[in-house]
């Protein structure tokens, strides 16, 4: 990623997605926000990074402790609820991972996750990377080592990103699933394509890693001919593409 500001995106779904995030924060906060002890400094640094991005975004305006957003809301910058405030400002879900006490893996220490793609925050918070990826079949020991090396070598001035494409029968953005009942890949092509732009950003002061997730859900029928051809290459199964 050549532009370090590009780890966050504001698009034409902003209003609808933020409205859902507001609803989830108000009615299901325990399902979408989680913090472990010791994550406070990393949350503070991430909060500063999000506000820095907002200050440089033309569609937002910060003044007197309030952020005026593209959808017309005025969001108070609540220093006592930094995760909740960030969730009300940007479309991305934000997960903070910090190195474990023994130094071997990164652990999910805090997150605001309003749009889970078939996983549940309560089952992942406080867990290391290898445990977080249960029950992802391809995440074996070799894959775990590769991912950990990626985290270890991540530079603060160079965020990384990847994009996936997942086939869903439902357009619901809030789509949790338990490890005991993982999502079953559809045999026939369903109606919706869910795509996540996932970024990794190192916070220089605390050395924590931020995993941000920007989600799009579109009807299959709205895809271009080229996009449909790419899906056809994968025979109707979930396709994952990285950059």
What descriptors fit this protein?
243 residues, alpha+beta, seven-stranded antiparallel β-sheet, three-stranded antiparallel β-sheet, 8 helices, 10 strands, disordered C terminus
Tell me about this structure:
This protein has 243 residues and is of the alpha+beta class. The chain has one domain (4-242). It has 8 helices and 10 strands. The chain has a 7-stranded antiparallel sheet. Strands 2-3-4 form a 3-stranded antiparallel sheet, with helices on one face. A hairpin with a 2-residue loop joins strand 2 (61-63) and strand 3. The longest helix is centred in the first third of the chain and has 16 residues, at 40-55. The model is unreliable at 235-243 (pLDDT under 50).
Beginning-to-end CA distance, first to last residue: 9 Å
Low-confidence stretches: 235-243
Main sheet specs: 7 strands, antiparallel
- What is the H-and-E element order? HHEHEEEHEEHHHEEEHE
Summarize model confidence as the mean pLDDT.
90
Which percent range describes the beta-strand content? 25-35%
Shape verdict:
globular
Radius of gyration: 18 Å
Count of discrete domains: 1
Q: Compute the number of strand runs.
A: 10
Q: Total number of helical segments?
A: 8
Helix content: 25-40%
User: What oligomeric state is this?
Assistant: single chain
Structural class based on helices, strands and sheet pairing: alpha+beta
Strand order of the largest sheet: 1-6-5-9-8-7-10
């Amino acid at each position: 990623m050549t532009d370090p500001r590009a780890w966050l995106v504001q698009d034409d779904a902003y209003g609808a997605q933020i409205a859902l995030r507001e609803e989830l924060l108000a009615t299901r906060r325990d399902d979408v926000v989680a913090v472990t002890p010791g994550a406070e400094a990393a949350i503070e640094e991430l909060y500063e990074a999000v506000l820095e991005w907002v200050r440089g975004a033309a569609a937002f305006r910060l003044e007197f402790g309030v952020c005026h957003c593209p959808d017309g809301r005025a969001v108070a910058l609540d220093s006592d609820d930094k995760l909740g405030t960030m969730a009300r400002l940007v479309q991305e879900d934000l997960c903070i991972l910090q190195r474990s006490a023994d130094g071997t893996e990164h652990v999910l220490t805090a997150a605001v996750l309003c749009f889970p793609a078939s996983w549940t925050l309560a089952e992942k918070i406080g867990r290391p990377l290898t445990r977080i990826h249960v029950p992802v079949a391809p995440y074996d020991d070799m894959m775990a080592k590769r991912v950990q090396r990626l985290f270890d070598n991540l530079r603060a001035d160079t965020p990384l990103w990847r994009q996936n494409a997942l086939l869903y029968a439902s357009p619901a953005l809030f789509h949790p699933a338990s490890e005991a009942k993982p999502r079953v890949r559809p045999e026939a092509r369903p109606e919706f394509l869910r795509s996540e732009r996932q970024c990794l950003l190192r916070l220089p002061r605390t050395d924590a890693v931020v995993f941000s997730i920007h989600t799009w859900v579109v009807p299959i029928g709205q895809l271009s001919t080229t996009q449909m051809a790419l899906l056809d290459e994968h025979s109707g199964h979930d396709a994952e593409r990285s950059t």
